[in-house]
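Appendix B. One record, verbatim.
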Amino acid sequence: MTTVPVFTPARRHLPRWVQPVAVVLVAAVTIGIPLWLVVVTSMKPQAEAIKPNLSLPHHVQVADNYQQTFDQGKIVQGFVNSLLVVVPSVVLVLLLGAGAAWVFARRTGRLVGTLYALSISGLLLPPAVITIVMELRQLGLAGTQLGMIAVYTGMYLSTSIFFMTGFIRNLPEELEEAARMDGAGPARVFFRIILPLLQPVIATATIMVMLFAWSDIFYAFFVLGGGAKATLPLNLYQVANAQLYLNNWHLIFAYVVMMSLPMVAVFVVAQRRVVAGITSGAVK
């Protein structure tokens, strides 16, 4: 019996440098070009910035643009308001998320599974703005920073629970049992054992919540409404809407750069912990 040879097409293996180069090119197009446009335009005088483009400025006007934006754009007031809203929201999301994740990771049963599914449903279901505003008005929290903190906490709690639950499930229960044998109660086990071990995923949740909340303008517009309690993004919208920066793209982009610097600094410092938290919390 004769066999018919089967010819398979030879596989062409791409050089190893192709994939990283492709990733760099995609990042340069999707991230680098918009970033370059913002930074370059913020350094131009008004005559060159009327129509924003990628060209370098013929006359660099960095100090004047940023000084004028800082003086007229209420940067300090918006920065303080953003801190008063974002920092408490992050703390609540971390503490409440870690406590709920600890319960979901250590308890079993149909009820626990159902509650866990409901808790992380916020990852897929967007919040209803009209319902949120109506509830805040009934509670007397509309237009207050406390109401904004409650909204951000509810919005991002699902993300915190999701990552932390997966992370805690990988932790050995013997650590908690040893602490209980030494007389530690639930609160002491949580703060002395669980929270210190959650540092990578806590860093991840912190960065994600801060990035979303710091740059949010949609929910801040409906909840805070502006005024003296406006955050940085909402303050930028109000200033531009009031035609203070009419056709002054160099000042608008200078405001965007200054508004983004705190988050860029935080992300650069904690970027390694972000990657570690995502890989360890999302994969069991």
